[in-house]
Amino acid sequence: MQIKKILWPTDLSGNAEQALPLVESLSKLYSADIHVLYVIEELARHEPWYGEFDNAHINKILEWEKEKAGERLDRICDQYLKGCPLYIKETAIGDPAEEILAFARKQKIDMVVMSSRGRKSRFDFGSVAEKMVKHSPVPVTIVPYVQS
């Protein structure tokens, strides 16, 4: 098996960053590209909020989050992934697990490396990580969450 594309899906939390040392190490070992993916959860999936938002307001919120996520991804990549051959930052909107799976298929990712839980998980094994292990078309390496 050749590993040329590694996907690190992130929710931009400290928990997700725990996978970065392994991502960087594997990238150097295999001279692999790192694809960094942040998924913005679609606001329409949530319960109605107080008052009604129109589509323009929702789009404005999504654009703001996409801009802030891009800035955070730039900082993370500059801080942690400087020594890697190539890293590509992407964002998507939708259900995190579904978007990560679709991205892995579309980009022909060879391996996914992610933390066992993100910022929302209170359990040992997050729902997104569990879905990835169960449904991914490629190997998924889960880095255990270590509380500091």
TrEMBL record:
It holds the Pfam family Usp. Residues 3-144 form the UspA domain. Coiled coil: none annotated. CDD domains: USP-like. It comes from the Bacteria. SUPFAM superfamilies: Adenine nucleotide alpha hydrolases-like. InterPro entries: Rossmann-like_a/b/a_fold (IPR014729), Universal_stress_UspA (IPR006015), UspA (IPR006016). Transmembrane segments: none annotated. Belongs to the universal stress protein A family. This is Universal stress protein. It comes from Desulfatitalea alkaliphila. The lineage of its organism: Bacteria, Pseudomonadati, Thermodesulfobacteriota, Desulfobacteria, Desulfobacterales.
